[in-house]
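Re: weekly structure request thread

Next one in the queue (155 aa):
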Amino acid sequence: MKTKFTLLCVVMLALVAMIGVSRLAVADDADVAVVELQGNDQMQYNLHEFKVKAGQKVKLTMKNAGMLPKVAMGHNCVLLKKGVDLVQFALAANQSPPEYIPEAKKDDILAHTKLLGPGESDTIEFTAPTEAGAYDYLCTFPGHFALMKGKMIVE
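Done, posted below.
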């Protein structure tokens, strides 16, 4: 019985810690939403969604928390305008080395970071759209978009 209680306590503490970390990844004040996004060697973002206010300034820092070289596991964050087909955009990006930002589709982009190697980070600032809704973001390194994608929710 004591072992089950101890295990339950450990699980609860882990859940509280994870919830706390995810909330810290998006800080918000009246003027600027601060977002801390990370990508890792398992092709995962730490956030699958973040929320901002319509027309709010956003300061997004993207960090590659992985260890593998950039040529094998580079990461970026590309925020797309509402309604852009994520798969078609990603397929075009696959053909656009070295940064994997397709020139022909630049009008589909709200903002993007640089392609980052292990331990590197990039901070971008932009203004959230004034139209509420869900806006896709993805990593455009070839093959990554299947797992590395999320939504910026504009309220």
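Residues 2-24 form the longest helix (23 residues). The mean pLDDT is 87.
Next request, please.
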